[in-house]
Design brief:
The chain has 360 residues and is of the alpha/beta class. Helices cover 40% and strands 18% of the residues. The strands form four sheets. The protein has a seven-stranded parallel beta sheet with strand order 3-2-1-4-5-8-12, sandwiched between helices.
């Protein structure tokens, strides 16, 4: 925990939409552990939501309260926002494949739902800070076919311009209905700070992983790889496996969210990339090698064609959030993977059989 933490001196709860999800429940746990009242707003549709809610209730009792509702319900979100000291907005439809199959539903949740949250704050609680969970998908593919080269078992940008990763000045280029809906929400949050003076900040997140990630959800490819490896099941890679992402452990992600809230007076109106950065960048094939070293056996791998909107390379430049808050990722990938493996084995044993799914 960092900064003055003035939001916890009001006696009002921090509202977390999607608070029974992987990131949301970890934020809720950290806040409640430090004495903050938390109000979770979640429609409980995701796998693991009930389990996460029960875990929080057992750990924190009445310090964590639940509202089972949907952000598409304007009345419900308006009532929830009214008494909040701050809002962490994580509720979303999070799968590219689902967005392609059901683009209207995707838009209604991600774009219209976020607008409902913003309007609720604007009309009932304009002093409440809002921090929004955006995505690296708003940048699109980033690199053309001649913009990256193979280096060992990974792709790298052909030039040095992206040596520190993708920064917030990079042009937006929405791909897929998911990219469009999240991108629209991202820009609405940013613009409500400019037009209405709301204290909003946007976090464009890369790959977050760690304990309490089920690995069979619509996101969480690192947990998915690990869970299938534990069960001795094949792992499907879309593309050639050379694509690169930067991974951020959930403990570091939670610290970043709280750091931005603690610095909201200077963070308001800004957009921040949030990921593990160049030091925690890894290709899909390299991750499989790391899992093999950790477990002593090689996962079974199959390949399928690339999908629309897949990024061959994405690494976050986190200089902006670090400069403002002092935050830095502290958990190395090998150490973080070990915590994830231990949690998955404790939760699911060694015979879990998660269905094959997409890779972010």
């Amino acid at each position: 925990m960092t900064g003055t933490n003035s939001h916890r001196l009001t006696g009002r709860p921090v509202l977390i939409t999607g608070g029974s999800g992987f990131i949301g429940c970890n934020i809720a746990d950290t806040l409640a552990t430090h004495g903050t009242e938390v109000l979770i707003f979640d429609n409980m549709s995701r796998q693991g939501a009930e389990e996460h809610a029960g875990w929080l209730r057992r750990r924190h009792g009445d310090r964590v309260k639940m509202i089972v509702a949907d952000i598409r319900d304007k009345g419900a979100i308006t009532r929830a926002v009214g008494d909040a000291s701050a809002v962490f907005h994580l509720a979303a439809q999070v799968a590219v494949t689902t967005s392609v199959d059901r683009p209207v539903d995707d838009f209604e949740v991600n774009a219209s739902g976020t607008l409902n949250v913003l309007e609720a704050i604007r009309h009932t609680n304009p002093e409440a800070p809002l921090i929004f969970a955006s995505t690296n998908k708003v940048y699109g593919k980033l690199l053309a076919k001649n913009g990256f080269i193979r280096q060992g078992n990974r792709y790298q940008p052909a030039g040095r311009a992206l040596a520190r990763g993708v920064d917030e000045t990079t042009a937006l280029d929405f791909h897929s209905p998911y990219g469009c809906s999240k991108g629209a929400a991202d820009q609405y949050v940013h613009d409500y700070a400019r037009v209405y003076g709301l204290r909003c900040a946007v976090l464009r997140m890369s790959c977050i992983y760690g304990p309490r990630q089920f690995g069979s959800e619509d996101q969480g490819w690192i947990a998915h790889f690990m869970r299938r490896a534990i069960a001795g099941l094949p792992i499907t890679l879309f593309g050639d496996g050379l694509q690169v992402r930067d991974a951020l452990h959930i403990n570091d992600a939670v610290a970043a969210w709280l750091a931005v809230l603690d610095h909201i007076e200077t963070a308001a109106g800004r957009v921040f990339n949030l990921g593990g950065g160049p030091r925690n960048a890894i290709s899909l094939l390299e991750l499989l090698t790391l899992i093999e070293r950790l477990r002593g056996e090689c996962p079974i791998v199959t390949f399928k064609p690339w999908r629309p909107g897949d990024q061959p390379w994405y690494v976050s430049n986190t200089d902006a959030i670090s400069s403002l808050t002092g935050w830095q990722p502290r958990t190395s990938l090998p150490d973080g993977l070990l915590t994830l493996q231990e949690w998955l084995e404790k939760r699911f044993g060694t015979t879990a059989q998660p269905q094959q799914r997409e890779v972010a």
